[in-house]
Amino acid sequence: MGNRTDGGFSTGPGGEGPPGRGSGGGPSLKARAVAYLSRREHSRLELQRKLSAWCDDPAAIEAVLDDLAREHWQSDQRYAQAYAHRAAERQGAQRILSALRQQGVADEQLADLRDTLNATEAERARAVWQRKFGHPPADPREYARQYRFMAGRGFSADCIRRLLDRRGHFDADVSSADGAD
To answer: What is the pLDDT of residue 166?
Structure first.
């Protein structure tokens, strides 16, 4: 048979596309899920989406996901930690937490992570700002440009304001509306 180019998964009839969705050919749903998890952590929702391409029965998918969670193969908490670790050096807490919520991680599982991210937000923002700009904003237009960039990365308004107001030479123009810090 030689080396397989399809990653070891069988294909459907005719050798094309996903297997026959429940036809019995290829690895089981659990084997597929474990293969996904061996590459990186996945949220329960993400695994559910991926497995639905291989099986039409939502009850079977839920049973496999329950087994994986019970056997500690899959954990939304572990997924959240891994995702935050990957994204923290370039994104703010708001953006990271929003992405995790979109992947189906519950808010109660994010409480500790939220506290950790908020505690390190200022130093992470400073590092991102330094890599991108490295110089203080010279005028209000540049201030706005730097502010938009940092806000787009998910850093809080308060954090951005503190970072840029310390670096800018025109603090009175910008911070007079907010009140001095």
So the answer is: 72
